[in-house]
Amino acid sequence: MTQLDLSAPIIPSVSAGGFSIGMSIEAISPSIKGARTINYYDGFNLVQAIAENTGMLVVYRTASSEGATIYFGQDIVRLVFSKEGLLSCIYVFSGYLGSYDTTKIGQPLSQVPRAAALSYDDGDEMYYLKNAAGEYEAGLAIVALPAEKDEYPETQIEGFSIHDWSLFKRT
Questions:
Q1: What is the CA radius of gyration of the chain?
Q2: How far is CA 63 from the centre of its chain?
Q3: Torsions phi, psi for 4 (to 5 deg)
């Protein structure tokens, strides 16, 4: 049975928190028995529900490209599933103890391997590593406040996104 692991390493495009990209929500279902479950609706205060969450919160969406989202605690780990029920994105935030390479949440962006190749995406509001061709490297984004290039070294990492965006586009 898959279980939350707050010390698991962050592996781009693959895993974090003890969960693997591409796994089905059915594979996780035994771990979330007893979780608070909400069918999202207009006007639902998700921010408040997350702030009050002490266990697991499962939010089902019907009017988006996403399926269910599972929040552990006050958004320490967030699992986002596609409409087809496949784990497409794992977010980890403050309280997560695992690391990407040797970089942890709370450290500055300068600690990210190849930090010079970071680029902020205004649409996603996250930093991505770029390869030599100037394209985003797949599977990892870094959550941090937007900053000018000369401010990157001091900008604090708030979280990581481990993902496969193509899973949201399946039909």
A1: 16
A2: 21
A3: -60, 135
